[in-house]
Amino acid sequence: MSSAEIGKTVVDLRQIAGLSAADRRHLGELLDTANGAELLTTIDDDLAARVLKAIPVPAGAGLLNELDAPQAAEILRRLGDSRRDSLLGAMAIDRAQVLRTVLSWPEDSVAAHMQPDVLTLAPTATVGEAVDQIRAHAADRPHDPTGAYVYVVGSDKALLGAVRLRSLVLTAADRPVAELLDAVVTVAPLTDVEEAAMTLIDHKLDELPVVDAEGRLLGVLTEDDAVEIAEEEATEDAERQGGSEPLEVPYLRASPWLLWRKRIVWLLVLFAAEAYTGTVLRAFEEEMEAVVALAFFIPLLIGTGGNTGTQITTTLVRAMGTGQIRFRDVPAIVTKELSTGALIAIAMAAAAMVRAWTLGVGPAVTLTVCLTVAAIVMWASLVSSVLPLVLKKVKVDPAVVSAPMIATIVDGTGLMIYFWIAHLTLPQLAGL
Amino acid sequence: MSSAEIGKTVVDLRQIAGLSAADRRHLGELLDTANGAELLTTIDDDLAARVLKAIPVPAGAGLLNELDAPQAAEILRRLGDSRRDSLLGAMAIDRAQVLRTVLSWPEDSVAAHMQPDVLTLAPTATVGEAVDQIRAHAADRPHDPTGAYVYVVGSDKALLGAVRLRSLVLTAADRPVAELLDAVVTVAPLTDVEEAAMTLIDHKLDELPVVDAEGRLLGVLTEDDAVEIAEEEATEDAERQGGSEPLEVPYLRASPWLLWRKRIVWLLVLFAAEAYTGTVLRAFEEEMEAVVALAFFIPLLIGTGGNTGTQITTTLVRAMGTGQIRFRDVPAIVTKELSTGALIAIAMAAAAMVRAWTLGVGPAVTLTVCLTVAAIVMWASLVSSVLPLVLKKVKVDPAVVSAPMIATIVDGTGLMIYFWIAHLTLPQLAGL
Description:
Chain A is mainly alpha-helical and 432 residues long. Chain A is 61% helix and 7% strand. In chain A, the strands form three sheets. Chain A has a three-stranded mixed beta sheet. In chain A, helix 5 packs across helix 7, helix 16 runs parallel beside helix 18 and helix 18 runs antiparallel to helix 19. At the A-B interface, helix 8, helix 9, helix 11, helix 12 and helix 13 of A face helix 8, helix 9, helix 11, helix 12 and helix 13 of B.
């Protein structure tokens, strides 16, 4: 994926930052426009941007001309202002204008990721005329893929509908395209790009048109781009769920310093939150000195609470990510999770009884441990079924409710439940 | 998504199992083939199978006729043998034969999810003849979508290549299709369906042809189906990462009993594994009695180890799921993670020092806690960077290395590290 063999030269593109000026010029010559553009589409946009930073501007502009507009824009967005302006300056004016339009939209909007240069037809065109126009459009843009649809617009440029390319193939040349018009799902340009991508995927669309407030067609989001965006979003969610910030670059290219920066913040936040377990335990120091066997079960009890909660939040965050559940489902979810939690509590209390008996801690501590594990399972079920949906409601990405966060929340509160139950059940603690 | 409004009747399809026989017949009548098929494509396959189980066989066969072959096969696969055979018996023989072929492949193979009824052309056909054949093919199959490609096969039926539908639109009618031939990426029928879906997505293909050992075309995997398969796989991975078995049905339809079954196995396995923390702590009972302050830090230390490990495994499992890393990368990964771990260990030791100081436990325990947190971070980094790749190597889904599993592994071993370091640094423990 990241090495290019051109002629006899093998270049490891990950080493590109270390090339001498002469080597970079040489690389620019080796990356002729056909091979080079092919290469840029197979590597990720971040690495592609580094290639364009390393080679001379005219060679880079030539390569960008061969890419489709959304990908060229993705790469340009990753470059500094001056390199971006020189590359755009070295391209044909029309093409540069199209790219500047895409680049002018906010990065998280669907418009910043759309294919802007879409063929439109009048509703009065016949199938034969449509085919002629498609041929002319494609001949002008040898490197822009023709989409799965052509779009039909009225005299006010408002989008009327779309005609599938395959419908044109299946229809006689003298019929008007207006007969073939499919209604289309559209989105506004400032729609969040991940939301737009999920709309396209959920509706199994080939393309999603972007229209302005007057209904005019600005461009289309393609299925390939939508799938790539959804994949990236799933990766970011997975990383948040693991308790770190999203890396934003492929793992193998992330340096230890970058990994450190993405991870240390959450580790310290969780450490600070977990630190109060020390305070809780110090408060119950006398209880532990009186019945030291209580300490044996601390990791087991809080671990079970964390595991129970993690199972729930992971399922809920994924169900939210794929649009299966919403805030209005909270009562149904909490009921379902507390019912499940009750069944799990019974099973885990039985397991805890076996374990306490094998450790030989006596009936009073055994009872305490069994009651505690049941109570912690119920508590973890409640917290973890409510928290992700509440966060979503207040516009925080629910994927930040990671396994480590749930474990941290349940650890301290679980310990308080433990010692409170111990006070009720252990005669040794009666006087404390 | 799951309620159907037909005429004046609103049916909550989740309640379908509870309908009376008369209501089911009525539902079968309401679901006329046009509305009904539209409905079946919007609900998930599991619910669609329950609808087909509830309504009379002829109505069900009529609905299945309107769906594309891969989806019809998905739904039939979810029915019992007798209902499946009656539905296939009530369909046109050709169509039933096509579906039986798809159903005969193992469920996890790409062939079980392909579109089997693909138009093929001879290489000598002209563009005009190709368009005529496409029209005839589409006229015979009003409900099967025409694909993005037509395929060209030799006299031995071996696949020679594919012609994009859009190329046919762009080319004069008298040119031979052989001039428009694109080389294609193909897969064998028994290829794992998730692997095939990722191949299609990574190469940004519209369709992926499935060919047998002689190179004959058996069918194609479509982009829509590949995206759906990849989404389902990502959901299963997320659920495994959260420490439970995949649900396999949409969350809101999972009963507490189903949730219990999917979750309790891992909870009990993890409980049994975590149980040895009790043995470890009992073994160090005297140390805890001598220096009870050691117990204050147990949740904090093992929690930090679990968090560090979870960050790493989540990132690695996702990177493996998207094909970014392989077993041969183990040395690079371990080096990277131990370097990152060293940086994290320094920061966390500093945080631990602050915390121990605020709890007022004295310099010796503070030193023990700082050294332990650093050692646990390094240990967690090592375990969690190696484990997912080793599991993948021995053909276990690395997604089972969940946050709870890493936490469990690190908890017990982390406690041993803690008390071992305590022995070295605490004079009170010298004699024990």
